[in-house]
Amino acid sequence: MSDIKAADVAALRKQTGAGMMDCKEALTEAAGDMERAVELLRVKMGNKLGKLAGREAAEGTVQSYIHATGTVGVLIEVNCNTDFVARNDEFVAFAREVAMHIAASPATRFIDADSVPAEEREAEERVFAEQVADKPADIQPKIIQGMLDKWLDEVVLLRQQHVNADRHENKTIDQIREELSAKTGENIVITRFQRYAVGE
């Protein structure tokens, strides 16, 4: 079964704290049965299941990226659970790679969709509703949702494919983060970032 829904993978991740690929594989093996997928993950991960997502990320690193022109720069804080991982070269490289992505993505303003203010989301929806007012009423909601999703892809960091698509195999920032989380066994959290550009 290859048509596993992203929403089901996300729900299983939230419930278990397991990595995205582990959740997708479990759902595929379980033919979409959520309870069976949880059982499969319990067998695979044992005592780790459910603990990863809830662990406090109190260690980490602050990294920067300055474009070669000297006109754009980014500061980013990425957290993890232990100072051992915080000093890990791969963890630091991840923070720098995300900073570089943000420097190249001026529309990026939020870490995840939950941090987008409701009033801002609603304002965008009103604009989109005006733009599709001439479309048949029964398809307007679907069009508006598609436009909203596209807007969220532009402004939400974790939803975006890394700008270096070849190097990161077209993965999103969240997928890269999850792979590092699974590899290190720690909760990797992008906490905050600030992008600076000359003249802005």
TrEMBL record:
Keywords: Elongation factor, Protein biosynthesis
SUPFAM superfamilies in UniProt: Elongation factor Ts (EF-Ts), dimerisation domain, UBA-like
PROSITE patterns: EF_TS_1
A GO term from the CC aspect: mitochondrion
Membrane-spanning segments: none
One example of a Gene Ontology biological process annotation: mitochondrial translational elongation
InterPro entries per UniProt: EF-Ts_dimer_sf (IPR036402), Transl_elong_EFTs/EF1B (IPR001816), Transl_elong_EFTs/EF1B_dimer (IPR014039), Transl_elong_Ts_CS (IPR018101), UBA-like_sf (IPR009060)
Domain spans labelled Translation elongation factor EFTs/EF1B dimerisation: 29-200
GO-annotated molecular function: translation elongation factor activity
Classification via HAMAP family: EF_Ts (MF_00050)
PANTHER family, A to Z: ELONGATION FACTOR TS (PTHR11741), ELONGATION FACTOR TS, MITOCHONDRIAL (PTHR11741:SF0)
Recorded family membership: Belongs to the EF-Ts family.
Protein name (record): Unannotated protein
Species annotation: freshwater metagenome
